[in-house]
Amino acid sequence: MGAGSDTPPVGERGDEEEAAPGLLSSGDGNDCVEVAATPGTVHVRDSKDIDRPALRFAPHAWAGFLAYTATR
């Protein structure tokens, strides 16, 4: 677990599922996130502040978010 956090780091085994390897955004800026998908949850965290808890989304909610942002 991350120091000072009850949330396991993205990419480490959670309670019920093992996360797929995380992915980093490919931008050249400082706004990178790590994303790890499991069958029931998508975990997202700030790659520069890994001690903070990850956000968790249902796969359909994450897919909707990606579809929305792709049009912006």
Q: Care to describe what's here?
A:
By secondary structure, this protein is an alpha+beta fold. It has one domain. The chain is built from one helix and four strands, in the order E-E-E-E-H. The chain has a four-stranded antiparallel β-sheet with strand order 1-2-3-4. The protein is flat.
Kindly report how far apart the N and C termini lie. Answer: 35 Å
**Measured on Cα atoms, how large is the radius of gyration?**
12 Å
Number of domains: 1
Number of alpha- plus pi-helical segments = 1
Secondary-structure content class = alpha+beta
Q: In which range does the helix fraction lie?
A: 10-25%
Q: Could you give the order of strands across the largest sheet?
A: 1-2-3-4
Q: Give the overall form.
A: flat
The major beta sheet can be summarized as: 4 strands, antiparallel
- What are the low-pLDDT stretches, counting only 5+ consecutive residues below 50? 1-17
Total strands:
4
Residue share in β-strands? 15-25%
Write the H/E string, N to C.
EEEEH
**On the 0-100 scale, what is the average pLDDT?**
73
